[in-house]
Amino acid sequence: MAVPKRKHSNARTNSRRAHNAIKPRKLEYCPQCSTAVPSHRICPNCGHYMGRAMVEMIEE
Q: pLDDT tens digit string along 37-52?
């Protein structure tokens, strides 16, 4: 089994993990009702996705 000969420095380890940070979700605005919605999701306010009604919303 392969075993490292020397310890990797903290800088080398941290630079390797630099892209692993959690990034905030991107929000887009629904063209129907102008509500902020995560991208590639059905709008929870009006039920539209990609300009089409996907879910029938019940109005109270």
A: 999 999 988 999 988 8
Beta strands in 1-60 (DSSP E): 27-29, 36-38, 48-49, 52-53
The stretches in the chain having pLDDT less than 50 are none
| Per-residue tokens: 48 | 């539209």
Residue 18: partners with Cβ closer than 8 Å, 6 or more residues away: none
> Over the Cα atoms of the chain, what is R_g?
22
Name the residue among 30, 36, 37 with its Cα closest to residue 51: 30
Q: HSE of 53 in the Cβ direction (CA atoms, 13 Å)?
A: 5
